[in-house]
Amino acid sequence: MNAQGFRKLLEQTELKIINNDNIINDFEGNEIIDIMRNLSYAAKKQLLYNQEFIEKYQIAISIFRDIICSLPDEEKIRMLEIYQIENYFKCIIIKTFNNSTKLDLLLKEKSFTKDDKVSILESLDVETLIEFLANNKEFFNENDIHPYEIIQRLDTERQRDIVINLENINLTLNEKKEILAKLAVDVKYSIDITNFPEEYKTAINMPASSWCGQVILERNLEDYRGLDNFIRINPEEFTEEQRTKLIKLCDICPSLKVANTLGLYSLKYISTAQEYKEAEQWIASIIDSLNPEYSKAQKMAIIDNEIGKKISYSPDFHTEVFNHEDSRALWKIISSGYGVCNGIARVEQYILGRIGIESEIICSENHGFLKIKDIELPLANGEIVKGNTILDPTWNLTRHRFGGKPDNFCISYEQARKNDIDIEGKDHYCHKNDKELQDATLNLDEQSLRQLFTSVGLADKEGQFPINDFIVQSKLLDAFYANQPEHNINTQFLLLSKTYPEFATCQNSSVTILSDILLNNENLKFNRCVVNRVYNKTDKEKRTILYVYIDSNELGKKFYFADKNKEQFVELSQEEFTKQFECYEEDLKKNKRI
């Protein structure tokens, strides 16, 4: 028997063994795979067409990648249709097709990520790529793919060909500058730029190190015009001069990204240039308004209050549309007015740091807040105490928004743990962190707290906070309309909208005020009262709308929603309410669990 005959006999033997259930039934999946890896090419190829075997033993199709890639195009397409192949390997296979088939599959496949698509496009020859760039603008817009993202991944020869043909490619000036700026270093050095337009020369001379950090501000800012997509800058530690320069750069490059860190995450949370400008303007207005003669404690009281007036807890938290990154992006939180606990704590930490107050973000298992370090606090008896204390800006939001006493301002760890226990005695452990907070011993007693807030005009001379007047008016209305529940409800709503016209946009805080004060009056006892959130069925963004549902023996079922434009509650029939609004999936699941 010659060598060719022996190989054929060996292949047949291998296939008989691998297809014999009596032999391989007791094998583990990984053992079968190990055997298959050692099969001859021809045996593997035959086995590839045994769909029943592959599915029965759950054989990863990636084992056949090289074989599939070597098949004729029509056979490769058949394999893609037969088997569920993960995108990474599917891309590798598609890149072996001819250009026409490759692009056809690219445009048809819906499961590909942006990176998958870029990976396939980078496999094209230069002529085909140029043609695709020119004729498929909509594809690039829909997939948020920039031409430079493909070209920077090409080999040096194809990058040079792109540059040679750059003027003839149907791209915008900014797109061409982006391509030049992102060329490989050796390609940049090999190109004669003598006759290039000046804006091209500036782009091609842009060093790779200049896309983030303070390096950006050391160049002529105009050099970055049109290169917005490359700039991601973290200005948390910037000086006043650097912040001023960055604001100018935001005007030149309005699509740049401003990043902040939070905990272990580096530059993950992104704000836009416009959000940065708006937020910094707001921060500057607060800092500039601070009396230079005020103590750090007084300044901190004003800053904490301003944050409560400006920011609300994200109303869509724990819903299918909640954005984890946006709610922790420092300047976006200020601009949008919404954030979550550790994001809001970062906002306050950032502002406090600007006026020389040191703090640290502390996290429990489910909450984030601040430990203020080495702060002097004035007591009502004239004494000054110094040390570490806890400030929870998130838990103070509602109090500040409605002019109440902030119960989580400069408290000890002992007091913070007491605040974790609700009226039913359940401990929510929101501030539990013995290791980090054992030294947070300063606790501003109520009299001292009232005196501090009086000293900066946030409480009256007797230490009473503005919300007291609101509560008194609510009780007077409740007494006056004791026997007219519908009038009572409507006047309570009217009081809320007149006193706090922004109530419809600070939904979480308004839920507390409605539940604990307005609809908790003596003469408003219902069978059931629900204050929660919904969204309008026509709103693709599913933005949160505050609503109130009341079930009363006297009035029946009543539905109201907070109209953000009218800044008031609007009553609807049950039929119209259910027609207009929908509950979030998470709320429906929660209600089922309850």
Number of distinct beta strands: 14
Strand content: 5-15%
Distance between the termini: 77 Å
Radius of gyration: 32 Å
Uncertain runs with pLDDT below 50, 5 residues or more? Answer: none
Outline type: globular
Q: How would you portray this structure in words?
A:
The chain is of the alpha+beta class and about 600 residues long. It has 31 helices and 14 strands. The strands form 4 sheets. A 5-stranded antiparallel sheet has the order 13-12-11-10-14, sandwiched between helices. Helix 21 links the parallel strand 4 and strand 5 (about 340). It is globular and about 95 Å long. The termini are far apart.
List its traits:
single chain, 594 residues, alpha+beta, 5-stranded antiparallel β-sheet, 4-stranded antiparallel β-sheet
In short, what is this structure?
Helices cover 48% and strands 13% of the residues. The protein is an alpha+beta fold. α20 packs across α22.
